[in-house]
Design brief:
Blueprint (H helix, E strand, L loop, with lengths): L9 E5 L3 H7 L4 H21 L4 E8 L7 H17 L1 H6 L3 E5 L7 H14 L6 E8 L1 H17 L10 H7 L10 E4 L18 E4 L9 H13 L10
Parallel strand pairs: 1-2, 1-5, 2-4, 3-4, 5-6
Length: about 240
């Protein structure tokens, strides 16, 4: 049970609306993604300043492979540039970078820069910045199931010993707490295959503001709204 007035420890964000932001301005979609990368910088900085434990960003979903190859290439380039250019700032701010998703299926140059930034920041003790890359919530559940099935086959665990806790221990974010708050920009009321297991009791906050316009003031608005809520996790008010 958590009291009102708290700030969340872990925020997850579905960064949507880059394409619409660009279209409304008569720009190519890529300009929206590039502007979105600026929002990533600002919001990461703000969340670190607020001493959040973790910020998880949905940067590339498994479904995003269905986009035109040109857009995929540009998104991968943006990601790579971010990992190179922000490496120093991430480290200087004591942020630890991690990733969830089927990372081994990303282009090799992106994997390389990701590994370098993760290695460099691995002993940092401040906020965790977790990038969901080639991530799918259903795929995660399938991956967890496969691992548990392997453990059963190898006699490490009995079938009737499998609990929610066993499941949690095999999640991509096994060492991290579930998100307290899920923010979605761009106004759509759906979870889009993001953290399906982890958001069971997460508070949702949706704004029509497109991600490239999302700034500190909007984050403050979400935090204010969160602070007014009382989380009961299925229990009763005390
Ligand atoms: C959704 O907008 C956003 C994405 C598919 C990618 C998110 C990527 C970034 C914010 C930039 C790079 C990330 C990092 C971590 C540097 P959309 O294109 O689906 O928007 P639409 O719904 O308006 O078309």
């Amino acid at each position: 049970m958590s009291e009102k007035g708290h700030i969340p420890s872990h925020i997850a964000i579905i960064m949507d609306g880059n394409g619409r932001w660009a279209r409304r301005r008569g720009f190519a979609r890529f300009r929206g993604h590039r502007a979105g990368a600026e929002s990533v910088r600002e919001i990461t900085r703000e969340c670190a300043k607020k001493h959040l434990k973790q910020l998880t960003l949905y940067a590339f979903s498994q479904e995003n492979w269905k986009r035109p190859q040109r857009e995929i290439n540009l998104l991968m380039k943006l990601l790579k540039d971010f990992l190179i250019k922000e490496r120093k700032e991430i480290n200087d701010n004591n942020i630890r970078l991690t990733a969830i998703g089927r990372v081994s299926e990303l282009p090799e140059d992106v994997q390389k820069e990701l590994a370098i930034t993760m290695e460099l920041s691995k002993n940092n003790t401040g906020m965790i910045l977790c990038l969901a890359l080639n991530y799918g919530g259903r795929a995660e559940i399938v991956d967890v199931t496969r691992e548990i099935a392997k453990d059963v086959r190898n006699g490490k665990i009995n079938l009737d010993e499998i609990t929610e806790d066993t499941f949690k221990k095999h999640l991509y974010m096994r060492d991290m707490p579930d998100p307290d708050l899920l923010i979605r920009t761009g106004g759509d009321m759906r979870v889009s295959n993001f953290l399906l297991w982890e958001i069971s009791y997460t508070e949702l906050w949706v704004t029509p503001v497109c991600w490239p316009d999302f700034r500190k003031a909007h984050l403050e608005e979400a935090l204010k709204d969160y602070a007014r809520r009382e989380r009961r996790f299925g229990g009763l008010r005390e």
